[in-house]
Design brief:
single chain, mainly alpha
Length: 149
């Protein structure tokens, strides 16, 4: 199979996998969330409290997009917005207990999903997959780093 056809097949498979994975990971959540909302919640969890400009910069989206996402997550009871006591112009965004519960449920779904499908691979195949995916990740990160110089 020529390289272009291989990449077309990879693209087709990646599309199917992405849809299946997100559908599985985000099932049975209360409230239901979308993938971009999950990414925002996990960023806030990793950072602790943060400000919208930091979120926008790190997720590479506009500040207005983050404002809309945060508003929706506040309405859902998953995040809070609190004015900083040191500087009232700064609004800190943090997770609620409900937001943490949603992340925990997605992580539980993730674990179950990968354990279920990992059984179709041998240990050598898992090791090879890990090696290849890390190699691709490192190349992408290096490219991003070079672009930001």
């Amino acid at each position: 199979m020529e390289i272009q056809k291989k990449f077309q097949e990879i693209d087709r498979i990646a599309f199917i996998l992405e849809r299946k994975i997100w559908t599985t990971l985000l099932q049975d959540l209360d409230p239901p969330i979308k993938p971009h909302q999950y990414l925002l919640l996990t960023f806030i969890k990793r950072q602790g409290t943060c400000i919208a400009t930091d979120i926008a910069k790190n997720l590479d989206v506009t500040l207005s997009a983050i404002t809309g996402l945060v508003n929706k997550l506040v309405d859902m009871g998953l995040v809070t917005r609190v004015r900083s006591e040191e500087n009232r112009r700064i609004v800190l965004i943090g997770l609620t207990d409900k937001g943490t519960e949603v992340i925990d449920k997605v992580n539980e779904n993730k674990k179950e999903f990968f354990l279920k499908y990992a059984t179709v691979l041998t240990e050598d195949e898992i090791n090879m997959f890990f090696k290849v995916i890390n190699k691709l990740n490192n190349a992408i990160l290096e490219d991003i780093h070079d672009q930001n110089k």
